[in-house]
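Researcher: Let's walk through a ligand-bound prediction step by step. First, I give you the protein sequence. Second, the SMILES string for zinc ion. Third, you return the three-dimensional complex as structure tokens. Ready?
Model: Ready.
Researcher: Here are steps one and two:
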Amino acid sequence: MAVPIQTLGDLRTRGGAHTRTVKDEIRHNLVRKLQAREPLFPGIIGYDETVIPQLVNAVLSRHNFILLGLRGQAKSRILRALVELLDDAIPVVPGCEIHDDPLAPLCSACRARVAREGDHLPIAWLPREARYVEKLATPDVTIADMLGDIDPIKAAQAGLNLADELTMHYGLLPRANRGIFAINELPDLAGKIQVGLFNILQEGDVQIKGYPIRLRLDVLLVFTANPEDYTARGKIITPLKDRIGSEIRTHYPVTRNNAMAITAQEAWTDRQATLENEIPTYVREVVEEIGFQARTERKIDKRSGVSQRLPITTLELVVSNAERRALLNGESMVVPRVTDLYAALPSITGKFELEYEGELRGAEQVARDLIRSAIGSVFTGMFDGTETRTVVEWFDLGGSLTLSDSASAEEVIAQARCVQGLRELAEHAGLAPGASAPAVASAIDFVLEGLYAQRKISRSDDRRYAAAEATPRRPARREEPQADEPFPMPGAKKKYYN
Ligand SMILES: [Zn+2]
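Model: Step three, the predicted complex:
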């Protein structure tokens, strides 16, 4: 390897094409990746045919751009992934707060240094990770935070004119010079700050406390926003909107498989330091289904969305509940059950905002309804065409069984032995031959909860499964608001039915 470039002289003689804008640099590196057919945004799942092509086009066009999407759609993650498109390191004037290019410094201090030291000026190398600056916009962000401030004391001490940039205390944007500046939730930024941003973008200068400051910053500006806030009139000043080259819409996973892949990647479930775990596919599917159903549930506010963090944290709690049970029962294998989802309520209720109708029902009840409905949907898909009559009849003939949350695998299996056909039915949940006891117990639990979700059997609050309650048959009159209540829960039963 050649001797590293350490001085401005070295840089001038063998530095190559270092003097280029950030947007050119990112474009160039993206072109190389495309030619080499390298994966572009590893770890970002489900956007290959939607978001990523638009993102590539925006970068190829050297645009500043905005990602429009609801919470938990990997917007911040995409922006951070842009760092991978920067050079490994760039040469800078050492100590300069705005990372001046030694070949073309902006600030007067650096220009003076270059003039004084010439080719002997030492060079520092700035790694790409240090070239990404992120700011969450809030209404109280000031011009000083974002662009900078003038320090009158510094000016007085040095005998400088206030408008000299030596007296400037730089804000976040100048500090992102020669890098990427990401502003999350752009519409929350006060109008006058947006004007300041626009002026920097457009004219390369800005007024601070009435003093014009000239700074031709070189920055890729990227933003995120909730689509409704962004399009709401008056939230974004028009000239700034005009300077944002591309608006790219993100979305939630389209398929359950994509959603499962994201959750599997993000959730902390590999806990081999304690016990081995094995998460049945139907448990993973139910966890995702909760997210999908929550996004279309009319009791839940669609404008704020339901983040993919819901299934991620839910799966973590589901595994933890199964882990707790296994530890208490001295079992060596952790296999979550669908009923463990009820222990995950603390991760579900905080992940959505309720509409008025949902407020009436309460967050916990809305979440319980979602769990039951999700189990029903996955169970129906998996057991479609499978005969469940034998088991249902056993309950109809007066049989019942009670399974507590902490029941060991052996206990569940022993109880299930009384129910004719239950064990055989559980095999349809995809049990491998010679499956472990906790896996069999989980499959049994899934069948019981599935039949309960289909209302073929009933279940009390203390988890006693029994025959379905006879519901009064209604004529096909489905207009009244109660009619499409998906699953009236036992316990929330209307008094006048008695
Ligand atoms: Zn400088």
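Researcher: And what stands out?
Model: The chain has a mean pLDDT of 88. The two ends are 86 Å apart (CA to CA).
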